[in-house]
Amino acid sequence: MPKITYIEHDGKEHVLEVASGLSVMEGAVKNAVPGIDADCGGACACATCHVYVDPAWKEKTGDPSSMEMSMLDFAEGVEDNSRLSCQIKVTPELDGLIVRMPKSQH
Amino acid sequence: MSDIARIVILGAGQAGGEAAQRLRTGGFKGELTLIGEEPYPPYQRPPLSKKYLSGEMDLEHLLLRPPALYEEENIAVLKGVRAVWVDRTTRRVRLEGGRELPYDALILATGARARKLPVAGADLGGVFVLRTIADVDAIQKQFQPGAKLAVIGAGFIGLEAAAIGRKMGLDVTVIEAAARPLARVVSPETAGFYLDEHAAHGVRFALSAMPVIIKGAERVRAVGMSDGAEIAADIVIAGIGITPETSLAQHAGLHVDDGIIVDRAARTSDHAIYAIGDCAKRPVHHYRDRLCRLESVHNAIEGAKVVAATILGQEPPHEEAPWFWSDQYDLKLQIAGLFSGYDRIVRRGELKDRAFAHFYFAGERLIAVDAVNKPGEYLGAKRLIEKDLKVSPETLADNSVPMKTIVANAGS
Q: Please, which pLDDT band fits residue A98 given cuts at 50, 70 and 90?
């Protein structure tokens, strides 16, 4: 299974094996990693699963859809590498992915 | 908090599950018991009328957290168990079968029940409500292409089921007592758009129409209407609202009025007992502390955050503007705020583009938004409402200015 490293805002790392087909958000929530709220459960309805994708992985994770982009406009502390983690599907190509959590999801 | 060693949560829906989780992550070390009537650990209800009904989402994805996590966090989850009595003097909950659980703090997250059709024949085979996994598992077996589906009630649940029905090739008629769909939740303008969309997808509507009987021998054959008409049906789904599950609270003598009345710290009239989620009626800060019973994921999660903070003596969360969403066909409807009492609507975007937002004003104040395939407008308006920022209707109507800029320039 692809390994994903989730880094909390305070620097705490969680390295997890996440099954292909799940989203990066689900990998965190189902393993009780704090820092990703995902209130809507992945319906792209709430923007509370914001993460920063490690620059080295930006290309492989692809570009956000226009719907995701307009939601990111209103997330706190948005950067060029900001994504909604419910919209990144885990694939074997993402083995080694690193994402960082923002200070707050609200 | 120091004197609280045992917490019992009645109701293992999203509110109860989130509360248990947040109590643990917030540092509660004592006994924590989560009791639910359904045979599943806490799961998400919204997909039941969407991707779970269509078969695109399975049970594992529906569960909020894997069952093993509750064990790891030492949360006792009692499934398929009903509580029958709350004794406030001895602080005990009695379960069906006689077992008694003592509590220092009791959280009522008992949710709500789907209303059954109040007509003869409502118990016939093929007649369903849509509230639980069991309901949808039973509906799914009969969701066959060509089957005739009659949906009674054109709220979110009914219209989402209608959309999935069409997607799966069923013949769908929606019956609604009011003159328009979604009457309780959106304006006539937004409702009209949804009526047209469903009609374009082949859904038939019987509006201002009252079913009086479900006809059939063992299974439903037709819905009989008050004007004598019959609507043929192999399956009936009643989406006519929910009733808060307040009977335990009522018997315990708590203050109940269409919901268990709580203060902003989620406390009932007995300060050892709290209520959150669909069963609770609480003051909503952004609407002048109006007492509301909100039926939503937002309310479940916020209630869980509030009750955990109260019990642990921690700082309460910032209250969000109430928010809701509905997926029908390729339309994502996102709502922030409470629209009742509006006197003006402003539109951004165009209905024909199937991407627009309706902003609701009461006087000069923005009170709510319905956004269809316009997530930026939804989130922007939610922010304006939460921060009580001022924005003019004319500014919002100007499509040439991005929503982000409008929000950034809004005054307090």
A: very high
Taking residue B40's Cβ as centre, other Cβ atoms within 10 Å add up to 18
Looking at beta carbons, which residues of chain A come within 8 Å of B407?
Answer: 74
Q: Which residues of chain B have pLDDT under 70?
A: 1-2
Amino acid present at B231 = I
Query: What sign results for the dihedral spanned by CA atoms B392, B397, B399, B404?
Result: positive
Cβ proximity of B296 and B129 under 8 Å: no
> Tell me: the pLDDT tens digits for B181-219?
999 999 999 999 999 999 999 999 999 999 999 999 999
Helix (H, G, I), strand (E, B) or coil at B121: coil
B75-103, pLDDT tens digit by residue? Answer: 999 999 999 999 999 999 999 999 999 99
> What is the residue whose two structure tokens read 């120091």?
B2
How many Å apart are CA B73 and CA B83, to the nearest integer? 23
* Domains recognised in chain B with CATH numbers: 6-113+242-312 (3.50.50.60), 127-238 (3.50.50.60), 330-409 (3.30.390.30)
- Give a three-class secondary structure readout of B293-338: CCCCHHHHHHHHHHHHHHHHCCCCCCCCCCEEEEEECCEEEEEEEC
- For the segment(s) A3-100, the CATH number from 3.10.20.30, 3.40.50.10090, 3.40.50.620, 3.40.50.1970 is 3.10.20.30
Chain B contacts to A (CB-CB under 8 A): 21, 25, 44, 46-47, 61, 64-66, 69, 72-73, 297-298, 301, 317-318, 320, 323, 325, 327, 332, 334, 373-376, 379-380, 382-383, 403-404, 407
Q: For residue B177, what are the β-bridge partners?
A: none
**ipTM, two decimals:** 0.89
SS3 for A72? helix
Domain boundaries, chain A: 3-100
B233 close to B148: Cβ distance less than 8 angstroms: yes
The SS3 assignment for B356 reads: strand
Which residue stretches of B117-270 are H helix? 133-142, 156-167, 188-200, 247-251
Enumerate the residues of chain A whose CB falls inside 8 A of the CB of residue B320. 106
